[in-house]
Amino acid sequence: MKSEQTQERLGWYVIHTKHKQEDRAENNLRAWGVETFNPKLKTRRTRAGSSSVVVGKPLFPQYIFARFDPTHMLHKITFTRGVHEVVRFGEQTIPLDNEMIAIMRMRVGDDGFIKIGEEFKAGDTVLVKDGPFRNFIGIFERELKESERVRILLTTVSFQSHIVLERDSIKKIAANV
Known about the structure:
Elements (H helix, E strand, L loop, with lengths): L1 H8 L1 E7 L4 H10 L3 E3 L2 E7 L5 E7 L4 E6 L1 H9 L4 E4 L11 H9 L18 E4 L8 E7 L5 E8 L2 E8 L3 E3 L5
Antiparallel strand pairs: 1-5, 1-6, 2-5, 3-4, 7-8, 7-11, 8-9, 9-10
């Protein structure tokens, strides 16, 4: 019976973390048995030797989400290493709608990162939004592994070529354009 009452009071709350300590706060909360959600974007970081690596960047810097019963866990969570505070309105902790977390979780890809932007399929007609090929139309071929880059088939007057671009530099358009 007690377990059922606790389940009813569980809610998702916004946790304000200390600067660049989202992962630390998440790991420490999980050690308490608290369910967490720390959405991240995939970004590329270039190293000094011109090689680049894929890293996770917080979708909401200095904020994560935790699911807990505030009547029993608020004090413990507030004083967890990496946590600055539980976001409140006045003195009231207000839970998020479960659907908000569910929507964000649906956007998490197989690689563990949040997908933002359009989903492209092979054969989609795309418009290049910026760069030297701005306003050119091409056909989406594929995303490149471990990268935020894509490959498209660019067709211009009597010229066809495959080019590689940043994913966010193209957008899907209707095929009859």
